[in-house]
Amino acid sequence: MISHRIAFPMLALLMLGANAQASTTEAFSHATWNELVSSHVTLLHQGVASQVDYRGMMVERKKLKRYLLSLEQVSRKTFDRWHKNDQLAFLLNAYNAWTVELILTKYPKLTSIKDLGSFFRSPWKKSFIPLLEETRSLDDIEHYLIRGSGRYNEPRIHFAANCASIGCPALLKEAFVGKRLEHQLDSAARKFLQDRSRNRLKGDELQVSSIFRWYRSDFEQTGHSKHSLAQYLASYREALGLTEQQTVQLTNGNIDIEFLDYDWHLNSVP
User: Are 269 and 115 in contact (CB under 8 A)?
Assistant: First the structure.
């Protein structure tokens, strides 16, 4: 039988170990990024689109760089211990914050993020991001860490990752956080689909953003479920403004899906 003198210290050590383990799995703080976007992102038309005050971001660039440095200091081992929602929030914020930093490297001498690329390499393929112990590109974050990892199987990331262009979904005016990620992704999806400049029914055609063409396979496979793009869009019939009859026509193939041209102009405040 263990004496109380021994049992209490042992219990204390066990509790200390449990607390230490819990502290390593707490969600990463995105408070600085939250401050930046809440101050320098303007939502348009009830939140379906946004503009970024890159001049204001430039003034607070040191703060942005501090946030980026904090992202860099997260090890892969620490990241892998987090809940999947915390991981995904971290990666989406990293993608958006590094995109803003990329724009600031040449702002205001550019009209599009594409101006930062070349004939041989797009801006998304530039390896300049120190993240999870490797130097990565924006494409690495989106297509390898998020889409290619097999961990998330979440098509709504395409309404959350912002490419600094008018054609992109709105840059959220707050940081993504794991405990609210489901709500944030659902809201981002519905807001984007409510934008009639990018998604609209016109006659016998449902005209939607080219995002649905580029990433069609993501929208046709959610988790372990397979479905058509029409079925995925029909699940957002209210956001798209479709009646029940139009929704049935869409899923039956009687409404064609067409993809609109993408507007690559910078999403900056005039």
Answer: no
pTM as predicted: 0.89
Distance, first Cα to last Cα, the chain: 76
Give residue limits of the domains in the chain.
Answer: 25-259
* Cα–Cα dist 91/149, whole Å: 12
Cα–Cα distance, 76 to 144 (Å, whole number): 14
Alpha-carbon gap, residue 71 to 56, rounded angstroms: 21
Q: Which residue has tokens 């081992």?
A: 77
Rounded (10°) CA dihedral 105, 160, 176, 163? 0
Q: What is the DSSP string of 177-206?
A: -GGGHHHHHHHHHHHHHT-TTTSEEETTEE
Whole-angstrom CA distances from 148 to 109, 132, 157, 190 are 34, 15, 13, 24
Query: Which of 183, 215, 195 has its CA nearest to residue 43?
Result: 195
Q: Based on the number of CB atoms within 10 Å of its own CB, is 101 exposed (0-12), middle (13-18) or buried (19 or more)?
A: middle
pLDDT digits (tens), the chain, 270 positions: 334 333 333 333 333 333 333 333 346 999 999 999 999 999 999 999 999 999 999 999 999 999 999 999 999 999 999 999 999 999 999 999 999 999 999 999 999 999 999 878 899 999 999 999 999 999 999 999 999 999 999 999 999 999 999 999 999 999 999 999 999 999 999 999 999 999 999 999 999 999 999 999 999 987 667 899 999 999 999 999 999 999 999 999 999 999 999 999 999 999
Determine the residue type at 178.
Answer: G
73 with 60: CB under 8 angstroms? no
